[in-house]
């Protein structure tokens, strides 16, 4: 973390420029968003820089998943105020696929099952879309299959899953591994993982967490949305944010997550902002 | 919708033309006039026969085109035949068939055309397509399948000239324990009509696997009737894929004569443009312990119309029947139309029967999931449409997947 300055006071890096550790990747300012007349996000501000791992915690319904979907461009949500800039570019002007191609990745809490579409075909098409956006040559079927089989080792995934329909009949753990596999193939700059740890047994959690750690680079950033300390035991976050009622109420370091684990979210409501683990909001 | 009174002169002309083709001076059998759909007929309520009656009976012919066979034949136990311009089935180079072990033509003298159909329907009045088929002269392909070794029979019908009228008739007798894999490719690229009819008797323990791929074009009509009589312990597996027809109607009628047989019906209809694709299926259980698994999927885009009517009859004698029927439909356009009617008629009280129907557009969550991986919305839509088709296509035998027209189906238009 380098400063609390906003995007408007910092020199914005063009998307094509090489990324250095500490470069501002994602900047959210006073974001308000909701579904229809219902406002869910009520002024979220957050900055994420290259090389950082952020954890976002909060009660059910506090707006964590909504924030992740708004960043990814889910059409069900309307942004009524505020901004999201990604590497200096107004992210809200981009379609979901443009956001993904430019390096924003959302790992779904509930990955969607798509019957009839083979996982291999899906992965190849999405990987090539990202490569095309980056000016790289598309991979043919055979080259891609070799590539994906190598990459599957990161999440210890059975290649048999390539032949199956996307997520159809996968267990909860297999779906989450498939999400991390997609993340590995797409090589995002900002990865948002929405409750990737939910529904995982101990071994699957370790595999997924190791995968996330292996994929983290000094030039990329990760936002982990989670309810549990156990994921943060495996992946140490640089910042922990607590959301409530559509806002980030508190930001701290890993000690804040541990305090939450011990005391629950009521503790946040009852304490002022100078308690343990508190650091300035990035 | 064309009214029966409007079509009567056309039907009379057709009968004259078919009688002339067969060397008769006048039509001998005017009974088809009686089976033309009456106004308000439930079975033809949504199905307009206008595409058929646009044919000019005075110009009808039986010319066929060489089909585009996929790859090379698969060797022993595998036979390819195509329909020639005289209503005969010949090899890919016009040669007489070289029958593989286990498959041989039989003189259907003991089994008259329409006899299996009447047994299966338990009615003297056959559907319109079967009646029209019966009017057309030409030898039926009557085959006996014997022995436990699987036999593969591929049949192909190609049409490229307008005003073709083809009405092939296939009669299959599967002896106890026999195993036949039958693929019927039909590709029509002109204003024409193909009116096939299949009758099959499955002995105890016999297996019949059918893959039916039919591709048409605007102005082309396909009326396909099949009648399957299943003995106990027999298995009938049918995978049908149909697209492109101005009017396409398939009417499989299956009867499990003694129960305790298995029937699997998989159907895919892809209706685009102004296509009308109709499936009317009937499965009757005449004994206990029968099984049915039926899944029909239809995609309707542009101004196309898809119709499904699936009737399952479970009388009191058919206790412990296990039947499921699902109709899934994808509506891609506000001007497209889908009518679906799963129908269970159950009298027996100790059965497990389920049915259901869904009509939906592409799911926003599925589209967003693909978009969130960098796939554009249009490409995501095409991928999902292909996925919808693949759910049925995956049941086709591998060699059927290589059929060139099928690739056009999978190349979803942009």
Describe what this molecule looks like in 3D:
The complex is a heterodimer of chains A (282) and B (414). The longest helix of chain A is centred in the middle third of the chain and has 15 residues, at 119-133. Chain A has helices spanning 64-72, 96-102, 119-133, 141-152, 172-186, 202-215, 229-234, 254-263, 266-270, and strands at 24-35, 38-49, 53-58, 78-86, 89-90, 104-107, 114-118, 165-166, 190-194, 221-225, 239-244, 247-252. The relative contact order of chain A is 0.17. In chain A, helix 5 packs parallel to helix 6 (202-215). By secondary structure, chain A is an alpha/beta fold. In chain A, strand 11 and strand 12 form a beta hairpin. Chain B has one domain. Chain B is 19% helix and 38% strand. Chain B has nine helices and 21 strands. In chain B, strand 1 (78-83) and strand 2 (89-90) form a beta hairpin. The longest helix of chain B is centred in the N-terminal third of the chain and has 18 residues, at 4-21. Chain B is globular.
Short structural description:
Chain A has 282 residues and is an alpha/beta fold. In chain A, a hairpin with a 2-residue loop joins strand 4 (78-86) and strand 5. Chain A has helices at residues 64-72, 96-102, 119-133, 141-152, 172-186, 202-215, 229-234, 254-263, 266-270, and strands at residues 24-35, 38-49, 53-58, 78-86, 89-90, 104-107, 114-118, 165-166, 190-194, 221-225, 239-244, 247-252.
